[in-house]
Structure formats: structure tokens, C-alpha cells
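C-alpha cells incoming
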């Protein structure tokens, strides 16, 4: 029979610590990626809400402009924090809560700031 030395305790505690570290890192990355996906979805909804507010203001869609933003936000459980319309421009800010985190997205819609006069440019002949 072979005897183990008295100071040989095995590698189980080291493997347990390594396994716990890998699991903690995996769950942490899963949480961060879930928040990133929810933030991207909220931003998409804010963009859509701003476009619908602008289209309602321009007469392309019927109804009240900011109530359109609220219907888009409520589809994902978000709330409209800000909805302003100035001329043909609209600004929308949405907020959503996920666990202890508060996510926010802003969007702006309207005509471009500058207009390009493409007819005055000369095209190059190759």
C-alpha cells in the first residue's frame, strides 16, 4: 500500500474555486448582454416613437402625436419621459426598468438640418 503525505490535501478546492469563477463570469456576462439587448430594443422603440410623432405632426398619421409615442412605449413596458414637438421636429425620451436597472433612450426625428442641392454639382466624366 502507498501512503499519502500528510500535507497532500488534493486539488478539489482549487477545482471548485475555478468552477465557481467560471460560473460567476458566465452569469455576469449573461446579465450584461441581456441589458445590452434590452437597451437596443428600447432605443429602437424610441426611434420608432419619434418617427411616429413626426409623421403625426406632419399629417401622415391620424391622432395625437404624443399619444402615439405612448402606445409605442407601452408595447415594451416603457414610459414616455419626454415628448416635444417643435415645428416639424420631434424629440422623444423613453425609460424602462429591468430589475434594479433603469434604462433610457432618446430619439429625434425631423427634416434634415441642411438640404443638399444635388443639381448644382457637376458630375465627373471618367
Amino acid at each position: 500500500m502507498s501512503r499519502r503525505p500528510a500535507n497532500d490535501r488534493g486539488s478539489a478546492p482549487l477545482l471548485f474555486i475555478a468552477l465557481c469563477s467560471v460560473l460567476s463570469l458566465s452569469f455576469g456576462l449573461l446579465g450584461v448582454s441581456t441589458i445590452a439587448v434590452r437597451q437596443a430594443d428600447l432605443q429602437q422603440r424610441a426611434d420608432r416613437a419619434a418617427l411616429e410623432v413626426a409623421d403625426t405632426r406632419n399629417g401622415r398619421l391620424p391622432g395625437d402625436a404624443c399619444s402615439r409615442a405612448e402606445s409605442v412605449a407601452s408595447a415594451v413596458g416603457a414610459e414616455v419621459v419626454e415628448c416635444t414637438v417643435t415645428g416639424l421636429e420631434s424629440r422623444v425620451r423613453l425609460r424602462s426598468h429591468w430589475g434594479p436597472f433603469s434604462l433610457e433612450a432618446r430619439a429625434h426625428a425631423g427634416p434634415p438640418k441642411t438640404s443638399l442641392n444635388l443639381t448644382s454639382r457637376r458630375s465627373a466624366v471618367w
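note: The mean pLDDT is 84.
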